[in-house]
Amino acid sequence: MQQRFPQQRQRRMAGLIAERGSLTVAQLARHFDASEPTIRRDLALLEQAGLAARTHGGVVAPRKGEAIEPLFLEKLRVQQGAKKRIGRAAAAHVGKNRSILLDSGTTMLALAQELAGRAISIVALDLKVAEAAAVGATQVHMPAGQVRNGYFSIVGTPAIEAISGFTFDLFFMAADAIDSDGISNSTRDEADVKLAAISRAGQTILLADHTKLGRRALVPVCPLDSISRLITDTGAARAVAPYRNSITDIEIC
């Protein structure tokens, strides 16, 4: 039976690819009762998210040990309490008349909810983050660019060019994975935007719950010493030890 909702089909497809390791487009089309053009469009999104790697006529699963990126709605249900505490702690670093750039993702959404209503100006790299922050006296701006379907982040050359035209006091950055080699992300498009943002910010504060530590995603973003401060949750109390020599300030909340 054909899946009614594309995101539901894509989630099941990602699971099937991870389980079997490799599949052809024809096999996926039969399994999901969908046309091959529809399957190819799904696979393009899964590849962009780091959930699959396309081959000639088919697809293979990511290599074991690499972090993969769940859809926004899936991420929203994970580590909710930790993300709220991280968002609250991060908001304490935002003073008056500061220029703020907010990255994408559900931890950043928690920060946006804490900042909403303050008389500050924010540039947001995520539709959902912008929506959450746009309350009362808070002015929210967004760069031009492409919206990642199912993830809501803003990526692409227009976004990078817009960021490059400004300077920011603080860039609050999210990450898919952190290990001794640095910060990494599931997609090249988001990694490129993050790198541009780091270059235009006086300080980069990384927001990441403990599940991101000790992992590596597909695309490197930056070394650990590019980060001024890491804000994480109490679940990371022991895991942060290897990072203290590279990151000046680590805040556990």
From TrEMBL:
InterPro entries: Carb_Metab_HTH_regulators, DeoR-like_C, DeoR_HTH, NagB/RpiA_transferase-like, Tscrpt_reg_HTH_DeoR_CS, WH-like_DNA-bd_sf, WH_DNA-bd_sf. Residues 6-61 form the HTH deoR-type domain. It comes from the Bacteria. Keywords: DNA-binding, Transcription, Transcription regulation. This is Transcriptional regulator, DeoR family. It comes from Aureimonas altamirensis DSM 21988.
